[in-house]
Amino acid sequence: MIVVLLGPPGSGKGTQAKRLSAEYRWPQLSTGDMLRSAIAKGSQVGIEAKAVMDQGRLVPDEVVIRLIAERSQDSDCKGGFILDGFPRNESQAAALDTMLGKQGRQVDCAVLFDISDQDLVSRLSGRRTCVKCGAMYHLEFAKPKQLNTCDSCGSALIQRDDDQPQVIKKRLEVYHQQTEPVVGYYTRQSKLKTVDAREETDRVAAAVHRALK
Ligand code: AP5
């Protein structure tokens, strides 16, 4: 199954993608994680992406489309995969359909995480991520046992550069202007399911399951 997780920054796409991935063995294809990995490696793509991401804007379509085109052809994606943070505008959605069409595949379901901007600000400003294993925490909703230390591997927890208030504001603006039309795109294809992303994590996971049935 090929599933698109769609929703504003901080709505819980990454959290639920990891759970689905562990349960169904579908890899999580997160363009945000791929770009952060390119930044950490200091590659040309990473250097160019960092400047854009730090401002809360979208990286050029051709860059993210190429990342997904390459990754989706890996052998672990044969049985399906979860798209987290892609597509983020209608051009990316159309490019994805063309790409999958050439492989005789298609998006099976797009799940929209529905939540207000007000709730998202506290989600994003409290998020902490492990520098080593990428495990995710929240200072209020998913606290690590020891402050600033990863429960899984003991490494330090950091705040993402784009989780600063001014950048959060810009990311939300960009979401409403450029990504929200993707909701209409999948509605027109009768593939859209909506979950209430304000609920606590287990309840959102249950709603995602129901949506995929
Ligand atoms: P990306 O990394 O994709 O960020 P995002 O879409 O803004 O989403 P986030 O990762 O911030 O949030 P999320 O929905 O995954 O929520 P999470 O599960 O972490 O993109 C970053 C940047 O890369 C973009 O701004 C852009 O520049 C670039 N980019 C990426 N893809 C691109 C593309 N396709 N095209 C162009 N540019 C692209 O949860 C957030 C917090 O809330 C966590 O602390 C978590 O523990 C907590 N939480 C989760 N669920 C719950 C719950 N139910 N209740 C309480 N707390 C919860």
What Rg do the Cα atoms give? 16 Å
- Total helical segments: 8
SSE arrangement, N to C: EHEHHHEHEHEEEHEH
Spans of at least 5 consecutive residues with low confidence = none
Which superfamily, in CATH terms, is the homologous superfamily of one domain?
P-loop containing nucleotide triphosphate hydrolases
First-to-last CA distance: 11 Å
Shape: globular
Structural class: alpha/beta
Ligands present: BIS(adenosine)-5'-pentaphosphate
Second rung of CATH, namely the architecture of one domain? 3-Layer(aba) Sandwich
From the 3D structure, determine the CATH topology of one domain: Rossmann fold
> What is the number of strand segments?
8
CATH class of one domain: Alpha Beta
Lateral strand order in the biggest sheet:
2-3-1-4-8
Estimated share of beta-strand residues: 15-25%
Helix content: 40-55%
Notable characteristics:
213 residues, alpha/beta, Rossmann fold, globular, binds BIS(adenosine)-5'-pentaphosphate
Describe the structure.
It is built from eight helices and eight strands; from the N terminus they run E-H-E-H-H-H-E-H-E-H-E-E-E-H-E-H. With 213 residues, the protein is an alpha/beta fold. It has a domain of 108 residues: Rossmann fold, CATH 3.40.50.300. The strands form two sheets. It has a five-stranded parallel beta sheet, with helices on both faces. The radius of gyration is 16 Å and the shape is globular. The model has no long low-confidence stretch (mean pLDDT 96). BIS(adenosine)-5'-pentaphosphate binds next to helix 1, helix 2, helix 3, strand 6 and helix 8.
